[in-house]
Design brief:
Elements (H helix, E strand, L loop, with lengths): L7 E6 L3 H9 L4 E5 L9 H14 L7 E4 L8 H8 L6 E4 L5 H17 L9 E4 L19 E5 L3 H7 L13 H17 L3 E3 L8 H14 L3 E4 L5 H7 L4 H16 L5 E4 L2 E4 H16 L1
Length: about 290
């Protein structure tokens, strides 16, 4: 499975070569070429060909070039995959799932097309959008051991549409309860599955200070990356989801302290007390650094 960094995931519409090139030239860890919401039905055939050709033109960057296909409950998914797989994308985003069964179906489609295109079977990873339908909210904890799943993310816009809501935000602009619940369930589902949780987009791409505040909070909460809709957001997201030198130094200090006191359940540290959960969090932070 992929060993790429997964801090920033930048969308670009699959029917715009200019925007696809601009996204690839950014510092985004992963670029997602979109065949779904960003492309009108009458342009989907052209977009498939454009994305395929773009993948073939940039073989050295394929690992970070992923594709969002259309949802399985529509007429386009297999056509998307048949067109894109010869270009050997780094991975796929699967939207609007209803539950784990959609991931398992998608795995079968990919396996057949990997074999047909001389790609190692099972080698194409998937990020799954697990809260875009009302039904999927009841299955966010079901992805442990699901094939190909490299990360989980959530969405608020399609969820609002699925449940017939007029808005997904409160009067102050914050997400309503149902959507904060989706965010929490995604985080818990990802932890259960043992994969990174990726925060959803911020639509206002000009407000970088708001983005910084939000991304830093999401990292503290346990998210490991964030979706982006504009290249200007990428550097802010990368910085927010990269542990600081101070964080790393303190984590190393805590790990070393427990290693020097292997029988201790709690240890005094800088005027406070540390216990085993503090050690676990420090080890997880250092694992992120080691992955990079």
């Amino acid at each position: 499975m992929t060993t790429l960094k997964m801090r920033s995931w930048l969308f670009a519409p699959g029917d715009s070569e200019k925007k696809m090139a601009k996204a690839l030239a950014s510092q985004a860890d992963i670029v997602i070429y979109d065949l779904e919401d960003a492309v009108a039905a009458e342009n989907k055939a052209a977009a498939r060909q454009m994305v395929h050709d773009f993948l073939c033109e940039h073989p050295d960057d394929r690992a970070r070039m992923w594709v969002r296909v259309n949802p399985l409950d529509g007429p386009y998914t297999l056509t998307d995959l048949a067109a894109i797989m010869p270009g050997r994308p780094g991975g796929f985003m699967l939207p609007k799932v209803y539950g784990r069964q959609d991931v398992e179906t998608f795995d079968k489609y990919l396996a057949a097309l990997e074999v047909a295109n001389g790609i190692e079977q099972g080698s194409t990873p998937v990020i799954v959008l697990i809260t875009e339908t009302a039904e999927s909210m009841f299955h966010t904890g079901d992805y442990k051991g699901a094939p190909r799943v490299a990360a989980l993310s959530w969405g608020a816009e399609d969820l609002a549409d699925s449940i017939g809501a007029a808005s997904n935000t409160n009067t102050d602009g914050s997400y309503g309860f149902t959507y904060e619940l989706a965010r929490s369930l995604c985080l818990l589902g990802a932890a259960t599955a043992g994969v990174p949780a990726i925060e959803t987009i911020q639509g206002d791409f000009r407000d970088l200070e708001k983005l910084r505040t939000r991304a830093e909070k999401m990292r503290r909460d346990g998210y490991r990356g964030m979706l982006a809709i504009h290249p200007a957001q990428v550097d802010v997201i990368n910085a927010a989801f990269t542990p600081s030198a101070e964080d790393i130094a303190q984590a190393r200090e805590i790990v070393a302290l427990f290693a020097a006191n292997p029988g201790a359940g709690t240890i005094g540290f800088k005027g406070g007390m540390l216990d085993r959960p503090h050690l676990s969090r420090s080890e997880q932070l250092l694992a992120q650094v080691d992955e990079e």
